[in-house]
Design a protein that fits this description.
heterodimer; A: 114 residues; mainly beta; 5-stranded antiparallel β-sheet; 0% helix; 52% strand; B: mainly beta; 7-stranded mixed β-sheet; globular
Chain lengths: 114, 115
């Protein structure tokens, strides 16, 4: 059972455009929603994260939008740049109930054309 | 701080051979994880540990064993490698504060090919 569903699987955007990646989750106990960025040949690294007490978090060109009632969250990359080309993973986790396992989406391969 | 390091970076095994992947972290994190990454499958959890001396199975544990004898190290073993274990393996660590898990720090990965 896939607890975090991520879409699209791949995304091609022109330089300067907006990239949008969506994730949906099922477990209402999740209380931490990070996005990781992975460049080819490297390990994933935290890009931005949000907790469910806020609906939006912005860091530079990257924004997470969070909809608790719909159990969805999304990553928006404004003014997308070729250097943003990478694989992006959403994740969700909670430590309540003794569970310490973050659940990952399957990833989105983003290509930004110059 | 080196963060999370993995040894080796690359390895080629023949079917039936054994090997151990080493993960080390210098952030004093309690929690450590081993993932495998395959095309289109995302990150799949193999085993994890919530503290020294404790380990637990993840989503895809078959064919792998782990040990956490020291807090800073988490070892992943393949006793009899199979071609299906060809993958990129990532180690990660994190800490928990109260009831919240914080970000995971990932190592650079080990690319394993089993022929």
């Amino acid at each position: 059972q896939q607890q975090v569903k991520q879409s699209p699987q791949s995304l091609i955007v022109q330089k300067g455009g907006i990239s949008i990646i969506n994730c949906a989750y099922e477990n209402t106990a999740f209380d931490y929603f990070p996005w990781y960025q992975q460049f080819p040949g490297k390990g994933p690294a935290l890009l931005i994260a949000i907790r469910p007490d806020v609906s939006e978090k912005k860091e530079g060109r990257f924004t997470i939008s969070f909809n608790k009632s719909a159990k969805q969250f999304s990553l928006h990359i404004m003014d997308s740049q070729p250097g943003d080309s990478a694989t992006y993973f959403c994740a969700a986790s909670t430590a309540s109930g003794g569970s310490y396992i973050p659940t990952f989406g399957r990833g989105t391969s983003l290509i930004v054309h110059p | 701080n080196a963060g999370v390091t993995q040894t080796p970076k690359f390895r080629v095994l023949k079917t039936g051979q054994s090997m151990t992947l080493l993960c080390a972290q210098d952030m004093n994190h309690e929690y450590m994880y081993w993932y495998r990454q395959d095309p289109g499958m995302g990150l799949r959890l193999i085993h994890y540990s919530v503290g020294e001396g404790t380990t637990a199975k993840g989503e895809v544990p078959d064919g792998y064993n782990v040990s956490r004898l020291k807090k800073q190290n988490f070892l992943l073993g393949l006793e009899s490698a199979a071609p299906s274990q060809t993958s990129v393996y990532f180690c990660a660590s994190s800490f928990v504060l109260g009831t919240s898990i914080y970000e995971q720090y990932f190592g650079p990965g080990t690319r394993l090919t089993v022929t």
